[in-house]
Specification:
Blueprint lengths: L1 E7 L2 H4 L5 H10 L4 E5 L26 E5 L11 H18 L3 E5 L5 H6 L6 H16 L7 E5 L11 H10 L5 E6 H5 L8 H14 L7 E5 L6 H9 L9 H15 L10 H8 L3 E4 L6 H11 L5
Parallel strand pairs: 1-2, 1-8, 2-3, 3-4, 4-5, 5-6, 6-7, 7-8
Length: about 300
């Protein structure tokens, strides 16, 4: 089992570290073997507008990268297929150059309006069927060697709420080294009544009970928790919510809402160790949203399995 911390090539993350060695020493100090990298546009504090390819980031060396998280598009159904393939091939080729052992791909379809109103426009199976067709178009005939791990969200797509849907996704994808990246916090958003982390662990075990045949395919875990059911209930009670007409303002308010909902905080319940042991994945990534290097260090220590 390998342990990673999530890292992006964005300005917010890269300015926390002074060198590749500084970054390497940091994640090792906090119990990680490497990084799960999201290759966003790279820029520097001196030239924040001079966006370059992620490869230009001097902090990241190939031997540091265990996994690559694709820059996933949430609202993609109906978009140009060739453009979508070019978008994802860029990340997959980056993963190949870095020697990544796995990549992460969201199986989801949600637009800004849906995320704001919770009025779904597609069923889980509709999204899964469309996603598998696209994944096969993306991967068939390619000479990739990494695991292709499909991640759950709580929007239409892979949610782990229904074993038949999960099985359909796995069966329809042609790629041989396929599996799942279980995001524990994302799954918790499917149950708005959870009150504490102990209930969250029990909820995840019930999901595993219903997916016993799928457990061997859970090759990775994004280990985090986000218990925001009360926030969602209050949000829904205050409906209707309307998006601003200005696209920039609309993007801002949607992401403010999402960050209130999906908090990515340490999962520290005593039962977390047993949960991870039951799944026995190849990879555990401590995936957090933090505001500083100091907060990231605090989260990594709190959520570190050996400290629970």
């Amino acid at each position: 089992m390998k342990y990673q911390m999530n890292f992006t090539t964005s300005l917010d993350d890269v300015t926390r570290f002074t060198s590749a060695e500084d970054l390497r020493q940091f994640y090792k100090e906090h119990g990680c073997d490497g990084l799960e990298v999201m290759p966003l546009a790279y820029s520097t504090k001196e030239a924040p507008e001079a966006y370059q390819e992620a490869d230009a980031c001097p902090l990241i060396q190939p031997d540091m990268v265990t996994g690559v998280h694709c820059c996933c598009l949430q609202d993609w159904m109906g978009q140009n297929c060739e453009e979508l393939i070019a978008h994802y091939r860029k990340d997959l080729d980056y993963a190949s150059r870095m020697g990544a052992e796995y990549v992460v791909f969201h199986v989801v379809q949600v637009d800004g309006e849906e995320s704001f109103t919770y009025q779904r426009k597609h069923t889980n199976r509709e999204v899964i069927d469309a996603a598998t067709a696209f994944i096969n178009e993306l991967l068939d005939g390619q000479d990739y060697h990494f695991w292709f791990l499909m991640e759950n969200l709580w929007w239409p797509g892979l949610t782990f709420e229904n074993q038949e849907d999960t099985q359909a996704l796995l069966t329809q994808v042609h790629y041989e080294k396929k599996g799942f990246m279980l995001d524990t916090g994302h799954y918790l958003h499917t149950n708005l009544d959870l009150r504490d982390q102990e209930e969250a662990v029990a909820c995840l075990h019930r999901m595993l009970d219903n997916h016993k045949d799928m457990i061997p395919y859970i090759k990775g875990i994004h280990l985090q928790q986000s218990l925001t059911g009360d926030y969602v209930k209050q949000w829904l009670a205050a409906a209707p919510h309307e998006l601003p007409e200005d696209p920039t303002e609309s993007f801002r308010v949607v992401y403010e809402h999402i960050f209130q909902l999906d908090r990515h905080e340490p999962f520290t319940a005593a039962g977390v160790k047993g949960l991870v042991k039951r799944i026995d994945p190849l990879y555990v990534t401590y995936e957090y949203i933090t505001r500083s290097r100091e907060e990231l260090a605090e989260y990594l220590e709190r959520g570190r399995l050996e400290n629970i």
